[in-house]
Amino acid sequence: MTTFKVEGMTCEHCVRAVTRALAKVPGVSRVTEVSFARGEARVEGTPDPGGVLTAIRNEGYEATPVAS
Ligand SMILES: [Cu+2]
Fold it and tell me: Helix (H, G, I), strand (E, B), or coil: what is residue 41?
């Protein structure tokens, strides 16, 4: 499981946009959680972290990896 901090999500629409984008990233087997309240996204699988960050940024949000 990999966690990312996501800035800029304000509603469920943002959550759906980020969830859809993450599901398309190679290596992501499941989008575990996307929360605008906590500003977090969690995915399962073995994606390239750079690919995840790019997918989130392409939707218009800022993302940073969270060290676990
Ligand atoms: Cu929104």
Answer: strand
Question: Would you tell me which CATH number, out of the four given (3.90.1150.10, 3.30.70.100, 2.60.40.10, 3.40.1790.10), belongs to the domain 2-65?
Answer: 3.30.70.100
pLDDT tens per residue, range 2-49: 999 999 999 999 999 999 999 999 999 999 999 999 999 999 999 999
Q: Which residues have their alpha-adjacent CB atom under 5 A from ion ligand 1?
A: 10-11, 13-14
CA of 15 to the centre of ligand 1 (A): 7
The structural domains of the chain, with segments of one domain joined by +, span: 2-65
pLDDT value at residue 68 = 65
- pTM higher than 0.85: yes
Tell me the CA–centroid distance for residue 49 and ligand 1, in Å.
23
CA distances to 4, 8, 10, 19, 43 from 48, in Å: 13, 22, 26, 16, 11
**What separation in Å is there between the alpha carbon of 48 and the centre of ligand 1?**
26
